């Protein structure tokens, strides 16, 4: 079976459940539960983040912090921004550390909503500081996800994205000589989801220095768009308002410059 061939290629050890007809129409999904030690590693990372956040909370003044929650809408984000503005000037370090820890945690464990965190950075810190903060936190979170996946992510990625993983592995092997250009291309364009790239890269042997550089540089265009929009947070009616003509034109121009080496490499090959 194709799934078993990919499994053998990736060095995984999985149990296959389900039936497959003689015509090969039905493809069973691999089931690869994490071992006790893999769960212990993941739990230890979660505990580390929680301890860090508790330490930040302990250094803040006594107050009502019921507003502190992960934003799931623009309304939630505006409420959070209104409350944090009063703290960001007097407790700048705590706000910055808490922000980064939450962002890295969300990136590490694939929790949706980082776009709201990027908007919050622009609203609280402005464009320049906001972009620097988002790129730093997003790169740190992606790196954390990379190393965690290297330890325990193989069965998860193979179970969730077997077809994408086979495609990604083939492309990485094919473009090994220009791998940085290809990874930059993936970061700037929506060819593959960023969450998948973070988890699958160590499994298909993408070197960390290439992963880091591609992530750090490739996330700048999107970070700029969302952070700049966060400055006018009260004017946003929906997430779709982020992508106006000016924003799309900016992303297009930066994207063309970024992926030109990749396109030239394709022509050469």
Radius of gyration: 21 Å
Q: What is the residue-averaged pLDDT?
A: 78
Quickly count the helices: 12
Shape: globular
Strand order of the largest sheet: 1-2
Give the percentage of residues in beta strands.
under 5%
**Low-pLDDT stretches:** 1-33
Question: Pairing-aware structural class of the strands and helices?
Answer: mainly alpha
Largest sheet: 2 strands, antiparallel
Protein topology:
Elements: H1 2-10, E1 15-16, E2 30-31, H2 36-58, H3 74-88, H4 92-108, H5 114-152, H6 154-160, H7 162-174, H8 179-188, H9 194-200, H10 208-218, H11 220-231, H12 245-268
Antiparallel strand pairs: 1-2
Helix pairs in contact: 2-4, 3-5, 4-5, 5-6, 5-9, 5-10, 5-11, 8-10, 8-12
In short:
This protein has 269 residues and is mainly α. The protein contains twelve helices and two strands, in the order H-E-E-H-H-H-H-H-H-H-H-H-H-H.
Structural description of this entry:
- This protein is mainly α and 269 residues long.
- It is 70% helix and 1% strand.
- It has helices spanning 2-10, 36-58, 74-88, 92-108, 114-152, 154-160, 162-174, 179-188, 194-200, 208-218, 220-231, 245-268, and strands at 15-16, 30-31.
- A two-stranded antiparallel sheet has the order 1-2.
- The longest helix is centred in the middle third of the chain and has 39 residues, at 114-152.
- The chain starts with a helix and ends with a helix.
- 29% of the residues are buried.
- Mean pLDDT is 78; it is low at 1-33.
